[in-house]
Structure formats: C-alpha cells, structure tokens
Amino acid sequence: MPNTVETDVLIVGGGPAGSSTALSLLKYSNLKVMIIEQNDLNSIRVGEQVNASLFDLLDYIGINKSDFEENSLLPGYSSLAAWGSSHISSRHSIFSTQVDSFQLDREHFDLMLLKQASEKGAIVFPRTKCIDFKQTDTAWTIELRHETRGDFTIKSTYLIDASGRQSHVCRKLGIPIEKYDDLVAIGAFLYFKDTKRAIKQEILLETVEDGWWYFAGLPNQEMVVSLFTDSTIVKEKQLQKTENWNELLSNTVHIKKMLANTSSNAKPWVRNAFSHISNIGAKSNFLAVGDAVASFDPISSMGIGFAISSACHAAKAIIDNANDSNTFLNYQENINAIFKHYLETKTLFYNKENRWNDSSFWKKRN
Q1: CA 276, CA 182: separation in Å to the nearest integer?
Q2: Which is nearest to 303 in space by CA: 34, 47, 123, 61?
C-alpha cells in the first residue's frame, strides 16, 4: 500500500449512509471516492422495519430489488402496538399512514450496499482507523492506520462523516453537536429451542413504566427484543445484568407471551439510541450524513430512510458545489428543517402514552 493516496471524496464509515453517498457520487459524477470502515464488516446488526418508499431511494442510487439476497427482505409484517393502553392496535393507526412495510436483514443489506459501492468504483479500506485530520485551503489530509498494513495518508478534497450516531469525525473536528436525550436500547437476539417452530411474522411495541419494548422476527429465524429506556435507568436498575433484564421483560403483558420457550446465546447488549443534530456549517468541504449528522428516536422509523436520503442530498451538494457555493449551507438548513419536524412529531408520539406520568422516562418526553 502506498504511504500517500489521493481521492476527491473520503467517506468515513461504511454503513448505509456512507455506502449510499458513494453510490450516488459514482452514479452522478466522475469523482473518485474512498470509504474507510473501522470494523471488519462482520458485526451483528439489529433488523429494521422500512416502508416501500425505500425502493425509490435505492432506485435513485442504482440498487434494484434483485440485488437483495434471498430472505434478506421480508414483506407483509403486521406491525402492532400496545401504546397508550394495554390494548393492542395497529401501529400504523397510532403513528403513521404508511402500511406497506418490510423487515430488513441489516447485516445482508449493509454488506450489499458496500459491495455495490466497491463494484461501481469506490475504494474500500476495512479494518482501518482514522488517527488525525488536518485541513488546508485546498484539501484534507487524513492520517490512518490499517490493522495489519500499518500507517498511511489520504489526501482528499472533500471529507464526509458517515460514522454513525457517535459522529466520531464531527467530534474529532470540534463540530457543535446538540444532544436531546439519553435513550438507549438494551436487548437480545433470541431463538426458539424447538428449531422447527416458526417465528411469528410481526412487530410489536409495548410501553411500560420505564420506557417501551420492541419485538420483531428477523429474516434469519431469530427474534430481537429490546427495551428502549434512558441510560440512567439502565445504570440505576443494572439492566445489563441478564436476571434484571429478564425480570423487567417478565412484567410485560404481551411481549413475554411471544417469547415462551425461547433462548439466547449471550447477555443483553446495550446500544445508543439518543437523538442529536450536528452543525457542520463551520467547516468547509465537510459534510456529515445519516446518524452522524442527525439521529432519531427509533420510534420514528427514520433510520435507514434518512441515512440514504441524506446521503443523496450530500452527494448532490458536493457535485453542485463547483457552481454554487451555497450547496453545503442549503444541505445543513434542510437537515435542520427535518430535525425540527421530527421533534414535533416525536412529542405527539410520546404524548399518546399518559399512564405513567410520574415515571422519569415519560416525564422527560411529555
């Protein structure tokens, strides 16, 4: 590997936002694109529910339904919620008018997008960590370290943070970030002990005093169940301990019934799910996409859709920047407007539940 390589656009993060940015740039311009991914691409990802509008976004970046692996995209899940009462209703009647939904196998989906980006011309560096960022008037200089091949340097005209909810590049550059809550997901992947038993093809939300539970069958014959609550509650009640998590799960009305005779191979995992927005306007030739620029409460179902749409808008801002110096500013203003609408909508969602007004979790949201 050369000690120094050059590119037009360097994307830090090989998830859906980073891959979609690369795909959009490669389809609509002749810019050279590189992607840095710190992980080895084998980490387990939680499945995600999406609606049919996803296919319009994928079509824009050149991805067809035929590109999906078999069983990595399952249609027709019923989506239910016990939210605001113990009675189960259609989630769509509570939260949205979108009724056509699909369950993604996120591991296959993420890898498919990254593979497509690579095949269409992006150079991908897996297991590579960014050590330092410097900017001159004309370019970014990024110092990197590959797991086995050592240190090297990339010089790039544009730099994009696609590192996810932690916004690693934004934080390294001192970009202002406004965080709105401390929501976390604490959950587990489960399977039936009887391997011949079919997993029920549905999604269920159920509110409890300390937050809300999420259940979904996954395309790989697993289930995911997780509690969305505040990090302070996890710490106070030691919910990372299996016995405490199980006790809270046993107090649910509906979800516990769906998990009878299931088992898990590991203790509960904890993942950040907080809402935040980054103000990227202070840096020239720099953008953030997906969760790195704005992250949303999972109740909004905005994750994948926003990751890809923000990627498309960021790519267009870069492509048009040569002829219009306001494209980056316009991009940030669009992100601000989306986030403002999200906050208003999220408040409406949470205000539908008023059974635990003395709970610290619900007080913060109502």
Answers
A1: 10
A2: 47
